[in-house]
Amino acid sequence: MKFFIDTANLDEIKKAKEWGLVDGVTTNPSLIAKENVSFKERIKEICELVNGPVSAEVVSTDAQGMIEEARELSSLADNVVIKIPMTMEGIKATKTLSQEGIRTNVTLIFSPLQALLAAKAGATYVSPFVGRLDDISHDGMALIEQVVQIFDNYGFDTEIIVASIRNPIHVLDAAIMGADIATIPFKVISQLAKHPLTDIGLEKFLKDWEKVPEK
Ligand code: E4P
Q1: Domain boundaries, the chain
Q2: Superfamily of domain 2-210
Q3: From ligand 1's centre to the CA of 113, what distance in Å?
Q4: Cα(164)–Cα(6) distance, integer angstroms
Q5: Which residues form the active site (predicted)?
């Protein structure tokens, strides 16, 4: 299972990279806006920092506009992946971009049929959003289960990025279901290694070690 980090913040990416936990990065317009920097400059910086796919999202809503933005963004670095919103215009753009060999990540997926359409259009990745479904009392992880099954049924190469992750349980469930990738906010990545029994156990080992006469 691959771990992407869901952020446009360079310090967060650097820290998670030191832990060996960054196989790729996903950004979106809201994450970029938080950084208050030039969009293209930041994407270039992230691409230099990370040896893996970096998703940059288009903001056009018509297929032609998305395609033009995608061509420009993909010229920034070899590892740029174009994030396309899940609309019929987005599906049209995804089809064209996939024929041009430009990698895409179809985002804002909230139903298994949306994921199926994106895969049929040749998307490299789909991003089903689990947290936002949970937020409205739907079962986010049930969506992942269905998408995994559909892609398995038909042997699609499209990889599933579990997105909108809010807590470590989402990561655990994604791994159990066999999702290809989880894109995880820095805060949740930092929580993954934590267990109170590990802390208590280590404290005791170190205390007992002090009693060893010859080290
Ligand atoms: C994924 O690619 C999205 O950027 C992200 O996971 C959305 O998460 P949010 O629902 O916490 O905004």
Answers
A1: 2-210
A2: Aldolase class I (3.20.20.70)
A3: 20
A4: 9
A5: 83
Confidence (pLDDT) at 14: 98
What is the average pLDDT across 72-86? 98
Q: Is the CB of 26 under 6 A from ligand 1?
A: yes
| Atom in ligand 1 nearest the alpha carbon of residue 26 | 2
Positive or negative torsion for Cα 184, 185, 190, 196: negative
Residue 215: which pLDDT band, with cuts at 50, 70 and 90?
confident
Say what the pLDDT of residue 103 is. Answer: 98
C-beta of residue 63 within 8 angstroms of C-beta of residue 70: no
**Pick the catalytic residue: 83, 120, 187, 204?**
83
CA of 206 to the centre of ligand 1 (A): 40
Has 95 been annotated as catalytic?
no
- The amino acid sitting at 164 is S
